[in-house]
């Protein structure tokens, strides 16, 4: 998530931030003889009662192309719907190395938008959002 981005443009959460009660952090794992292998992860943060943010989506290099990111994304969007969010937004990189992530999000209905939350315009960032169909009943 840091590839080619200056430190001031890196918005991934560190381990301490992922442990915050306001963050839902999920992993995708595959059982094996030596325990479960981590395939991917992602997080959902609440910006307000109607708006969630996807954070720290990552797929292990050896697990790419196996649907791991789609599964993690689908699970987190399900959590967002259960919470009654009206939309989910994200920030990802603008560099070529982030093109697969941007394509994944676009395939799932995300469209580019302006900065949201505390973000500001940044040439290293692409902001995307997905409106979630109603009804929006807070769980």
From TrEMBL:
For the keyword Transferase, the answer is yes
Q: Show the Gene3D superfamilies listed in the entry.
A: 3.40.630.30
Q: Where is the N-acetyltransferase domain?
A: 1-133
PROSITE patterns with a match to the protein in the record:
GNAT
Name listed for the protein in its UniProt record: GNAT family N-acetyltransferase
Q: Does the keyword Transferase apply?
A: yes
Q: Which GO terms describe its molecular function?
A: acyltransferase activity, transferring groups other than amino-acyl groups
Q: Please give the start and end residues of each transmembrane region.
A: none
Q: Which SUPFAM superfamilies match?
A: Acyl-CoA N-acyltransferases (Nat)
The alphabetical list of record keywords is:
Acyltransferase, Transferase
Q: Which InterPro entries match?
A: Acyl_CoA_acyltransferase (IPR016181), Bact_Acetyltransf (IPR050832), GNAT_dom (IPR000182)
């Amino acid at each position: 998530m840091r590839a080619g981005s200056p430190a001031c443009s890196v918005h991934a959460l560190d381990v301490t931030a992922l442990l915050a009660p306001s963050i839902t952090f999920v992993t995708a794992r595959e059982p094996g003889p030596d325990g479960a292998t981590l395939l991917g992860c992602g997080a959902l943060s609440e910006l307000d009662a109607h708006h969630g943010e996807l954070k720290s989506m990552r797929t292990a290099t050896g697990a790419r192309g196996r649907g791991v990111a789609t599964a993690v994304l689908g699970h987190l969007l399900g959590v967002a719907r259960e919470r009654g969010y009206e939309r989910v937004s994200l920030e990802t990189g603008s560099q070529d190395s982030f093109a697969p992530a941007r394509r994944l999000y676009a395939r799932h209905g995300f469209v580019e938008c302006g900065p949201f939350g505390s973000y500001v315009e940044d040439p290293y960032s692409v902001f995307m959002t997905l409106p979630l169909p109603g009804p929006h009943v807070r769980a």
